[in-house]
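User: Working on a comparison across species. This one is Pregnancy-associated glycoprotein 3 from Bubalus bubalis. Can you predict its structure so I can line it up against the others?
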Amino acid sequence: LVLLGLVALSECIVKIPLTKMKTMQEAIREKQLLEDLLDEQPRRLSQDSDPDQKFSSHQLKNFQNVVYFGTITIGTPPQVFQVNFDTGSSDLWVPSVDCHSPSCSKHKRFDPQKSTTFQPLNQKINLFYGSGSMKGVLGSDTIQIGNLVIVNQIFGLSQNQSSGVLEQVPYDGILGLAYPSLAIQGTTPVFDNLKNREVISEPVFAFYLSSRPENISTVMFGGVDHTYHKGKLQWVPVTQARFWQVAMSSMTINGNVVGCSQGCQAVVDTGTSLLVGPTHLVTDILKLINPNPILNDEQMLPCHVVNSLPTLLLTINGIIYPVPPDYYIQRLSERICFISFQGGSEILENVGTSETWILGDVFLRLYFSVYDRGNNRI
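Assistant: Here's the predicted structure for Pregnancy-associated glycoprotein 3 from Bubalus bubalis:
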């Protein structure tokens, strides 16, 4: 979770629909990347599955914009948790009953004593994200995602969590989907166990992040449901097996180079809400897009100008990916809109370049994304 943060296989594709949440205007103004929550709009919970086909689809309640999350279970009998499926980190953790921080007490907590398959490991851990931090211990238990089951999966049990964003988000924990080199030393991430134990037919997963509350967002494991996208998949090689990181050759607005002038790296991250880049470049982009900000905030502008704003063009592996203003602008009210760019990518370490951009949900709502560990490509 950075800064806060194929072939269709009908016999073994598991799809987990995700939930979106709406942000608060005040939190966006404070530049939080995972914002406080407002106006939850719950929908009826339903589930469809076909055990013979190893295919599962869960319709969840749907929120408006920014953070996407879905359901897993841990333990025997199963304890249900909402988790952020995050391509920007590699660890799985949920709050434990031993955590009494405000951010734990507002969420579902795992009780090891109620699971007959739980094994304590007594190793202490500290995890840090842009949106907060947690301290806890490791344990192992049975994890289920849809109808995919992993026994003896090592995961974190939070015993202390920072207040702020982690206190307000509607999900309980995080399920990281990045490479094992980012995971806690000596542990194997969830997706690697799915792959290594042949729980899934192919070592791939994919995200469809919807832009409309009435549409279901989905993460799928073991293959690709091609009904979620149009056209041919454009594969891009991963440049470094840590984050889901690719080379980007240019970033332009109205023919002006606004970033990546010498080439750069882009991290594709479902756990980041915005488009995040080096602070000085983001500042220049905001000035170009919004020369007359309102509310003394360079990211705020009147909504009536949105249709006249330029399209951002990203070039990745020779393909131009347009990001029109309807996608990089968020409506906060009838009159006030927000530009979804954020500085701060400088905090990323060991990415092999002096300029890195994080392509968060603003980008991924536009483009269906497939993550192929077998061929190290997106």
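For your comparison, note: The helical segments are 25-29, 102-105, 165-168, 190-196, 279-289, 325-328, 361-364.

User: Helpful, thanks.
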